[in-house]
């Protein structure tokens, strides 16, 4: 650290420890961490959930929840001022003027009852003595820097009238309007679609360059790190595991933990798997349509085409991926196939039987053959029932005795690598990854022909994600299942899918073998989507560990 | 990467349930408003059950020679065998010479019966309607408009109408008080069902072929029990009050039945001279209502902390 010592860092955190409340699973939220941010650099703080990266950011801003998290030792120096010792009044002055923060979800971080312009204006009213005309000009000016168009109408719109990307730009504008020296970005692109994420990342980088702002960028995504970071700090369980220049850390990580994290990121290269061309088709859809009709007594009838004319085929033992951004209709298709919602028109052939329009009663006999795994493992198990009861529920529904079903569940548990002894525990006693494996066990217990994984790994940390993916693949191979894999994450799709369907605004725009689609995308939307994937040029799986 | 089977340490399910119940009980005993409410309510229940053994006389016995006595007046009766029986009117007598103390004690029976039965009845009916309305979409609009209609009529007015249409027995009174309470229960149950019906675990149950009644019973009902208990205490309290109001207005149970409302109605005419006929039943009524409401508040805070701001 000899060469850096010449430049005075903007932010320097030394030996910071933040205590957790007494009944928590560990004593400190963060323990003895020391990091610094130099002028004009983007420092990425990376870690899995619970690693303490957000706590670090919040303690800099002085936004830790009082009485629950208290910094017990260490210093946070912002240009020579210790933020832990300044008065509440001074801290208020510093926030916005010297340092500012952007949050993960712009919809909840913006006030829904104020126009965007007014919200930026409020910052100026609080911190400056400009008159109205000057403030208005400043607001329009900063919005212009955010590469927004039609500035005055955007300034006069309410947050809900804008898109997610526009809202995040408003947040950044609000944070930067007073030219702070430090910008803290807490997972600012996690809630956004890939194409929007790419634009926002580019914007942050550009603005950082123009305004010479130091950026503390918090993320869990190594793709984003590869895209944006100058330097990287890796955190695990409240401690700094590794820090250094981005290129070095990504290519030759020092610690095994960093290496594990990086190599867990699926590669953006499609794998080659011999296609089972003549395996029987398990499920096929023909012209599947779902239209939501909103009918109000006093309103015009509105129609939303969530899925339009979708034709897909899944063969036994193969994985079909549906990729697309939010609102593209991929989940609608999955839920139609599982018949959790009724399709408007079209056919769904389960082997040769059309299940698209069958009645609820005849559907019940077929339910066991298509099983679905949901995104959020914390909500897909009933918190008031033991996991065993959840797993055997389906079997008992189809007339198996409880005892027999329980024995079956016990036989199944080693397959998902969970001890059968824990079947009488409740869901909250398990971690996210374990719960998702329990959900897989619940689906497998029904002996389905087709498993639908609806964003099944999206809520998990990368290391857990790779375990669950590997497990799903293992199960698919052993039981010769067909899998319909819904994801927004192109890396994951590249890793697991044999065939891929790309959806955009309710329609399948590209459909074919995964290798073909990934190597040679035909449709322009597919190309735009692939080009936007963060860190696409980086080969994550083959990092070496430096000794 | 974990290849093998993972071992998990926390306690098994059944032990966990026992632990959880023990913890809730411990929290309840620490909650002052629960303890106060339970003790006072327990006392009222005690006097209602043991009314005949608490040195009371027949609450309907009229003694015109001893009308309008103030509390503490002693009454002597010479029995046929010559012995003298002494009797103290602890709370005085009313305009017909009935012992107010005995009437107040017996009055607890009617009040509590009305409170509990109304709560049970409106919760049971409201729960069924609310579950069905919340889960079956097309029924929702119909049921809700019916409930809105019911809510538009003032509860007491509806009760008065019902009691005057059919003769005023305890059963019709209970029905008359319970029906206006139902829409509130339906709205509560429905709102909880709506917030839970789209949870992935309910959808997961659908996709493993669970039938509708089982989904309602297994996955939705357990989430409703705690708020429903809390709601029940409020309904119980308001039912006791409505019964007293109806009796006071003279449209409740027939005036010879001792209820707190009837006693107060009786004492209304001579209130300035003999306030005791309103004072004592009033104290019992107020204490009981306070106890029930405090019990409800305490239960709500312990059983369902999220509800704290909702009601």
UniProtKB/TrEMBL annotation, chain A:
It is a peripheral membrane protein. Coiled coil: none annotated. It comes from Candidatus Endolissoclinum faulkneri L5. InterPro entries: AAA+_ATPase (IPR003593), ABC_Ni/Peptide_Import (IPR050388), ABC_transporter-like_ATP-bd (IPR003439), ABC_transporter-like_CS (IPR017871), Oligopep_ABC_C (IPR013563), P-loop_NTPase (IPR027417). The gene is gsiA. It is found in: Cell inner membrane. It comes from the Bacteria. Keywords: ATP-binding, Cell membrane, Membrane, Nucleotide-binding, Transport. This is Glutathione ABC superfamily ATP binding cassette transporter, ABC protein.
TrEMBL record, chain B:
Keywords: Cell membrane, Membrane, Transmembrane, Transmembrane helix, Transport. It holds the Pfam family BPD_transp_1. InterPro entries: BP-dependent_transpt_permease (IPR050366), MetI-like (IPR000515), MetI-like_sf (IPR035906), OppC_N (IPR025966). Residues 112-296 form the ABC transmembrane type-1 domain. It is a multi-pass membrane protein. It comes from the Bacteria. GO terms for cellular component: plasma membrane. Its main location: membrane. It is found in: Cell membrane. GO terms for biological process: transmembrane transport. It comes from Candidatus Endolissoclinum faulkneri L5. The chain crosses the membrane at residues 32-54, 112-136, 156-179, 220-242, 278-299. Belongs to the binding-protein-dependent transport system permease family. This is ABC transporter permease protein.
